[in-house]
Structure formats: structure tokens, C-alpha cells
Amino acid sequence: MKPIIGGGSSPASAEVQFLTVGEESAGQRLDNFLIRVLKGVPKTHVYRIIRSGEVRVNKGRASADARVALGDVVRLPPVRISEAVAAKAEKPAPAREFPVLFEDDHLIAIDKPAGVAVHGGSGVSFGVIEQLRQARPAAKFLELVHRLDRETSGILLVAKKRSALTKLQDQFRERETGKTYLALVAGAWPANRKVIDQPLHKYLQADGERRVKVVTKDDPDGMRSITLVKVAQRISLPPPPGEGRGGGALPEATLLEVTIKTGRTHQIRVHLASAGHAILGDDKYGDFDLNKALARQGLKRMFLHAWRLQFDHPATGERIALLSPLPAELQKFTDHARIPSPPVRPDRL
Question: Mean of the pLDDT values across residues 231-260?
């Protein structure tokens, strides 16, 4: 028997393996346990070997949704991976630490920069979680609690224990967390518009790229999505290069505090764009001509930042409130814009 305590990463093999479930994997579904262990093995193959009975838990057959327990012995049949996947495994993600907002024995809250995916996939070789694991080889367990779009910066939670992961994910699922973003949108957002309650539908374009759209409330594919909006600042955008500020009215923009009650894919981006106020710099749902003009004036990314997060600590139950100030490039852009009303710096709200 070859015990692998904790069910950590183990390369797919052409030999029978026996894995001993450790504390970090106890309580996990069998299918998810195997998908994590058998990196590079297609999910369809993982489910096939479970259904066929080739996977055994304590010498007995088990279903995909069975929960593995501490000390369980899991038998895996020989599996093979493609040469491409094997070559990728030999070139791990580069180790990288990220700015830490909070850390203890149960979780890490990092300040994710824009332009970095949270995990590999969909044409991205690696993301935050893969780089963090390489930077912390002694860590037995590191898993994403939730996700942020690649273009979005701000607070991202990583669990250091499975118990912390499940408790935090339960809070996200039950809407017991407070997630507030800062978004700079085109136009003057009406102050009396405070709630967007519109279903969203996720679909794939012809080229396979993922998109989301607002649908009617009676659409069977729509998922209820609720976004709360509060005006933080009114802003006049910088004039085009070469033009002074005295030549007439400048385009308006509004800095919003956006709190989501549901966590749908691209929810904030689609809800705000559907209201006629797209996020500046959004290359999927925004105003492409305006984005090009703003890029020449210094805004080279989407102005969406995961600013504030509140949750109950998974071990102590204490309410934790985290704050990530606007990144320097976004603060610099707003500082150079004209503020018609007295400014309120978002990092002091």
C-alpha cells in the first residue's frame, strides 16, 4: 500500500494506487477528491472509473457523491494522461505571493491584482491558486473560497483547511457575506435607482467564449440576480488629449458602491451595462470606443474592484470586515478627473 496522507496532488499513474484520506480531504465528495488527485485526467474518465467500480473505498464500491472520511483507503485503477498534460505537469506555475490583507491558521485574504486569473483553465495556464501553492510548498491545503473575474482586482479568500472552506462557502451560498465593489460607470447614475433585480442567463458564443445576458423573469433559463447600488461620487472624465478643460461640458461618470446579494457570473458588469451605464474599461459589455479613448488617458483596465468583504470567521464565528483600497492606477485616474461635488475617497468610506 502507498499511503498519500491528505489526498494531496499526485500525478496520474499507470499503476494501481492506494490513497489514505487525511484531515484536509475528510468530508469531500469522492468525485471531487479524485479530480483533485488525478490532475490532467478528464472528468468524464474519473466518473467512468467510479461507475465501473474500479475505484474502491475501503475495498467497497462507492458512488460519486459519497463522502470520504479521515483514514479511508481509496483504491485507484491505472490511469494515463496525454503527453501534453504530462509536459505541463513538469512545468509548474511560477511561485508568487500576493499582498495579504488577513491571515491565520484557517484562511488567507489576499489583494488580487487585475489581469491575473484566480485559477488555470480556459486558455490560462495558471492563476492565483496555482502560484500560491508553488510559493507555499509546505501548505497541506489551499483552495479558493470564491472567484473574481480576471480583470477584477480586490479581496480574494483562500481556505487553508477543508473545514474553513465548507463553512465559508456555505456563507457565500446563503448570502450571509457582505460583498461590496467599487465600479466607475459611464454617465450619471440616477441616485434613486438602488436595486437591480433582473434574472441572468449564461451562454456561449459561436467562438466558445462565455457571455451573460439579462432575460425576462419568466425565462426558464434565467437565474434571479440581485444587485444593490449606491452613488459614491460624481465625476467628469478627463478631456481628450490636447483639449483643455474649458471647452465645454466633459463626459460624466459615476463611482458606485455595488453590493451583490447573489454571485452570478459577470453579474455586476451585465446588470450595470443593461441599465445603460457600462463599467469603464469593460472589454466584454462596455463602450468600446469610449474604452479606447480612456486608455489613451491612463485607464488601461476595467474599473471594477472588490473593495469590501464581511464574513463570519469559520472557526471563531467573529465577524471579520476587510477593506482593500483602490489600486494606485484606479485612484490616479479618479484623482485626475474633475469632481463636481466634494470628493469622498473610497478608501475612507
Answer: 77
Burial of 167 (0-12, 13-18, 19+ CB in 10 A): buried
Smallest Cα–Cα separation from 320: which of 311, 328, 329?
A: 311
Residues identified as active-site: 149
pLDDT value at position 158? 98
CA-to-CA dists, residue 173 to 27, 169, 170, 257, angstroms: 18, 6, 5, 21
Q: 226: buried, middle or exposed (CB in 10 Å: 19+, 13-18, 0-12)?
A: middle
Cβ-in-10-Å burial (0-12, 13-18, 19+) of 153 comes to: buried
What is the per-residue burial (b if ≥16 Cβ within 10 Å, else e) of 254-293? bbbbbbbbeebebbbbbbbbbbebbbbbbebbbbeebbee
Q: Give residue 10's pLDDT.
A: 47
Please name the residue ranges forming H helices in 227-305: 267-274, 288-296
Residue type, 279: I
Which has more confidence, 303 or 1?
303
State yes or no: pLDDT of 95 exceeds 90.
yes
Which has the minimum average pLDDT: 57-66, 123-132, 266-275, 296-305?
Answer: 123-132
C-alpha cell recorded at residue 189 = 447614475
Amino acid at 74: V
Q: 3-class SS at 252?
A: strand
